[in-house]
Amino acid sequence: MAKRKFHLKLADLGKGKHWTGIDFRSYMVWNEGLSDPIIREGCGDNIDYGPLFAYLFRRFGYPLYGWDDYKQLCTYYLTTPHPDMLLNITPYVGNTSVIAIRFMVPLAVMMQVEDYARRDRSAWDQRMYAWAEQQGLPDWMPEWVAFYNNECRQLWPAAPASESWRDIMSFPFPNGEPGTPLHDMTSRVVQYGKQLREDYEKVEAWPPYYDRPADWRAMNDDDPLKPFAEAALVALQDLRTPVGVRDQSIDAFGTADDGVADVSAAPSAGYPCGALGNAAPKEFAELHGLVVELGKGNVKRGIKKIMVAMKAPDAKVEATA
C-alpha cells in the first residue's frame, strides 16, 4: 500500500503544552543574510503575503487561535509530518519568508538539538572535571554541594538535587546580595570555575561548537535536528498543494499552474462565521471558550448543547460528556 501523502491541517496547540520557535539557520553553516536554508528550499526567500493569506483562508478557514491585531495580519498554526513540530505562518507585508514562516517545537527538543551541537564541548567539560579531581579539589567543595542541596534548592525549587560538584559549577555570575551566604558561596564557585577553565585550556584546547552543514541531507544520521529539517521541508512543499476557487485553483504562491485542486476548500470559507466575531470580537472569543469547555474540547458538541438550551429555555446546560 502506498504511503499516504502528507497534508497540512490546523494544529491543536495542546492545553498546557509549551512550544518554542526553532531557527534552523542558527544551527547550520549559513550566513546568507535574512534567509534560512530549509525555508529557501521549500518556498524561497520571499513569499507574497496576499496570495499566502488568500490561500490559508481558502484552504484552512479561520485561524484557531488569536494573534496580535496590531502587528500581525493573521497567524495560523499547522501540523507537520513530525508530531513534535508545528508550522506557524503569519503573512508578513514585507514578504520576507523567514519572518512569515517559523517552526515550533517543545523545549525538550530544542535542548536535544543544542546538546548535540555542544557534545564535543560537553565531553571536554567532563575531561576538565576529571583533571581537576586529579589535581585536588578545594577544601570547600563538599560544603558547596551541601549548601546547594539544602539552601539553593529552596530558592530555586525547579533545580534538581546534585550528588556531584560537577553538576553545579555552571554559574556565569554570583547570585544573591553581596555579604549574604549565597553571594559568598556562588562568588567562590564562579571564581574557581573561571580559573579551572583557564588552566585546563593550557592542557587541551576548547573545542568548537558544531555547526550543521547547510544541506540537511548531509547531516549525521544520529543528529536530532535532521528528521525535523526533513519534516519541515515536506510541510513547506505542501503549501504548493492547490485548492479550488470556482474553476480556478490557487496555492500559497498564487494561481496554481496545473489548475487542478488537490484538497477541498475549508467549509467555513463559505459561511458567515465572522458575523458574530466582527460585531463583538472579545465577547465572541469568550463565547468560543465556553463552547469548548461545554463540549469538553468538542466544539460541535458544545454548540449542540447551547442550541438545545436555547430551544428549551428551562433546560439546564451542563458541561458533561
Strand coverage percent = 5-15%
Spatial extent as radius of gyration: 27 Å
Strand arrangement within the widest β-sheet reads 1-4-3-2
Number of helices: 11
Spatial separation of the terminal alpha carbons = 37 Å
Query: What best-fitting shape do the alpha-carbon axes yield?
Result: extended
* Class derived from helix and strand content: alpha+beta
Q: What does the largest sheet look like?
A: 4 strands, antiparallel
Order of helices and strands: EHHEEHEHHHHHEEEHHH
Averaged pLDDT, please?
89
* Helicity range: 40-55%
The domain count comes to 3
Number of strands: 7
Q: Which stretches of 5+ consecutive residues score pLDDT under 50?
A: none
In a nutshell, what does this entry contain?
This protein is an alpha+beta fold and 321 residues long. It is built from eleven helices and seven strands.
Core attributes:
321 residues; alpha+beta; four-stranded antiparallel sheet; three-stranded antiparallel sheet; 11 helices; 8% strand; extended
